[in-house]
Write a structure and sequence with these properties.
elongated; mainly alpha
Length: about 130
C-alpha cells in the first residue's frame, strides 16, 4: 500500500479524494474487524459454555465462531462500512468532522460491543412461521 501511494490521502487533480485511499482503508477496516469479531465471538461462546456448567476449550471457541462465519462476515461488512463513513466524515471537516465522528464513533463502538454476543448466542434462521 505504501509503495503504490494508495495510503496517501492527498487529493488527486481536481480536488477529489483518492478512491484508492478509501478502498484500501475499507479493506484495512474489514480485515481488522474480522479478526476482532471472530475472536470476540469465540470468547463469548466459551463464556456461554462456562455459564452452562461446561469446561470450554480454545477449540470450542474457534468451532463456535467458525460455525457463525456467514453472520460474522455480514456484521463485519456493516462495521467496516460504518467505520469508513466515519472516517470520511472526519476527513471532510477537520474540527467539526472530528467532533461528529467522535460522538458517532463512540455510539457505534457501544453497539458493536453489544452485537457480538447476539451474533453468537442467537441462532435463528430467517424463515418465520
Amino acid at each position: 500500500m505504501y509503495a503504490t501511494g494508495a495510503w496517501n490521502r492527498r487529493p488527486e487533480r481536481g480536488g477529489q479524494p483518492q478512491v484508492a485511499y478509501y478502498g484500501m482503508l475499507f479493506l484495512f477496516y474489514f480485515c481488522n474487524y474480522f479478526i476482532i469479531v471472530f475472536f470476540n465471538a469465540g470468547i463469548v461462546a466459551c463464556a456461554t459454555i462456562r455459564m452452562d456448567g461446561g469446561e470450554p476449550s480454545i477449540g470450542d471457541g474457534f468451532r463456535a465462531a467458525a460455525s457463525r462465519l456467514p453472520v460474522i462476515l455480514g456484521w463485519v461488512l456493516v462495521a467496516a462500512t460504518v467505520g469508513l463513513i466515519l472516517r470520511i466524515v472526519e476527513d471532510w471537516s477537520e474540527k467539526a468532522g472530528r467532533f461528529v465522528a467522535g460522538i458517532l464513533g463512540t455510539a457505534w463502538t457501544l453497539v458493536s460491543f453489544l452485537a457480538v454476543p447476539v451474533l453468537v448466542v442467537e441462532n435463528r434462521t430467517r424463515s418465520r412461521r
